[in-house]
Amino acid sequence: MKAIVHENKAGLEGLTYKEVSEPEVKKNQVKVQLKAAGMNRRDIAVTHRHSPDSGPLVLGSDGAGVISEVGEDVSQWKVGDEVVINPGLGWANISEAPPEGFEILGLPDDGTFGEYIVIDQDHVETKPNHLSWIEAGVLPLAALTAYRVLFTRGRVKKGDTVMLPGIGSGVLTFALKFAKAIEARVIVTSRSQEKLEKAKSLGADVAIDTNSDWNEELKDEKVDLLIESVGRATFNKSLKIIRKGGTIVTFGATTEDTVEIDIRHFFYGQFNLLGSTMGSAEELRSMLAFIEQHQIKPEVDRTFQLSEYDYAFNYLKDTKNFGKIGFDLS
């Protein structure tokens, strides 16, 4: 089969598009003929984390397709079923943190940037009917991350004000859509006027420049929950804009990941600071039910062929996207 492979060199220079052996199905596994796969910033990080000396690795965490073969003892799936891949390996039930041994598909295991993938039968879920193949393929990792951030960790509720600095990523566009679905108020920031306008078209109530004075721009707002994924560039601005007793949930850092805070300001403000990453299979199923209930679709920015991997990875690296980037394998 054809696949995007990382080998021989660290970083993006180690990427190639080549013929590799089609994976074989074992007991309790299913083979999925992929129709679409989704990109995440993790894919770029993996090109630096994966050791070139450890052999070739098929990248990719997100995907959707049709089951083409089932292994021995597979009872819940059959050939022809349309499924999405659960990229979180080894996290079955909701818990305060991932269990020991939790991994994300695409490192160390081969991922979704190929024509086929073999995966345990309990790591696929039924594809929502209202989604196209591309929409289903880009969905799982980012949507699950946003769902856990908002509902499990942030405990958002109707009427809350949620702030999303640096709108444009897959996770934050899902967070915007999820928050609006439960009638929360949403504030977004970006350095791009185009991204601010797109966010407003999706329902954002307030959209401001990331480099502006947030306290002046939002002096009439009360931020209950802030989703922080930028890092050092915005973290202290985030800490100074949430209401006393408010909550910051952080799931990543696109700028420097080391920050310094005024601890006295923090404890006087009675703030809550929570971490989050991905989510469990139980939360994935809840997220899929939620998007079906509200007929939510991913915001798809662009799609590429697998052979266009070089342009696709650099497009993602330069943060040009608003929403998700996908590979079309149909």
From TrEMBL:
Pfam families: ADH_N (PF08240), ADH_zinc_N (PF00107). Residues 10-327 form the Enoyl reductase (ER) domain. It comes from the Bacteria. InterPro entries: ADH-like_C, ADH-like_N, ER, GroES-like_sf, NAD(P)-bd_dom_sf, Zinc_ADH-like. SMART domains: PKS_ER. One of its GO terms (molecular function) is oxidoreductase activity. Gene3D superfamilies: Medium-chain alcohol dehydrogenases, catalytic domain, NAD(P)-binding Rossmann-like Domain. PANTHER family: DEHYDROGENASE, PUTATIVE (AFU_ORTHOLOGUE AFUA_2G13270)-RELATED, PTHR45033. This is Zinc-binding alcohol dehydrogenase/oxidoreductase. It comes from Piscibacillus halophilus.
